[in-house]
Amino acid sequence: MTRGFFTPVSGVDLPRFAGIPTFMRLPHVSVDDPRIAEVQVGLIGAPWDGGTTNRPGPRHGPRQMRDLSTMIRAQNGVTKVRPFDLVNCADLGDVGPNPGDLMDSLKRMETFYSRVRAAGIVPLTAGGDHLCTLPILRALAKDRPLGMIHFDSHTDLFHSYFDGTMYTHGTPFRRAVEEGLLDPKRVTMIGIRGPAYDFEDRDFAVSVGIKVIPIEEFFARGVEDVMAEARDRAGSGDTYVSYDIDFVDPAFAPGTGTPEVGGPNSYQALEVARGLRGVKVVGADLVEVSPPFDPAGATAFLGVTLMFEMLCVIAESLAG
């Protein structure tokens, strides 16, 4: 099979409003399709928000992001990277959740991503709420802990919610550390801000060696310096990237469930993604886009543009 099959449909060949929407107009290849063996990067939807504790809606994120992703073109306008020329990419479809059973949904996602990993595919996921990242990490980190670069306005390191509920979108990385999925000393969390219940999450980060860079430090130091530290902490080892759209100020990304004011603008959001160049990214996600709060689609469009930036980094890394 030639790379031609994996080339996205161009807007000069078929109008962007026509055709069946897939991520970035790539071919759809299911995990049961024989051509899965040729895929190097799989774009995946995780339409599930069973971990949401405030405004629901991220379960609808992948569908809207697929639609908005028709505006993605073949070449990065800044880095000049042409990811679809470097690696075979495909839309692998959605992970089918069980909206009535949180634990079953976590297991379904872990099983799906285990198959993706077994096929040697790097997953790039559109969420879904941030709890979706936990089963992805369970699948990708079965035999060694990963480093992580995490863009967010929240650490998602809380122990529990509601007197003992252990699995919400505010707890995935606490569970991931406890389960040995992450190497805390290779984890950097960037953009943390907003009023807090307490500092239990930050205290935990300090106790295990996670580096938290709050938003005031981010602005004081600048993108280049912060990303240099994140890359240095990640080192040469396998690293996961998790990007919560609420890292971005809600003036630029209003369509999310737990917005926090005082964040980066959309250009800075793209800059930090480009700052991942050189990191060995073995998986990435863009989560918490909530279409009910995004009537014009601006948040979803920013989300898929960030996915494209991360795809460019992944493609460069795989191509060597």
Strand content: 15-25%
Query: Over the alpha carbons, how many angstroms does the gyration radius reach?
Result: 18 Å
The domain tally reads: 1
Shape: globular
Count of helices? 10
Number of strands: 8
The chain-level mean pLDDT equals 96
Largest sheet: 8 strands, parallel
Low-confidence stretches: none
Q: What's the helical proportion of residues? A: 25-40%
The string of secondary-structure elements, in order, is: EHHEHEHEHEHEHHEHEH
CATH C-level class: Alpha Beta
In which order are the strands of the major sheet placed?
2-1-3-8-7-4-5-6
Distance between the termini: 21 Å
CATH topology: Arginase, Chain A
Looking at the overall shape, the CATH architecture is 3-Layer(aba) Sandwich
- Given helix and strand content, the structural type is alpha/beta
CATH superfamily: Ureohydrolase domain
Task: Write up this protein.
The chain has 320 residues and is an alpha/beta fold. The protein has an eight-stranded parallel sheet with strand order 2-1-3-8-7-4-5-6, with helices on both faces. The radius of gyration is 18 Å and the shape is globular. It has one domain (25-319): Ureohydrolase domain (Arginase, Chain A). The longest helix has 22 residues, at 298-319. The protein has helices at residues 61-68, 83-86, 102-118, 133-140, 172-178, 200-208, 215-221, 223-234, 266-274, 298-319, and strands spanning 41-46, 89-94, 122-127, 146-151, 182-192, 211-214, 239-244, 281-287. 32% of the residues lie in helices and 16% in strands.
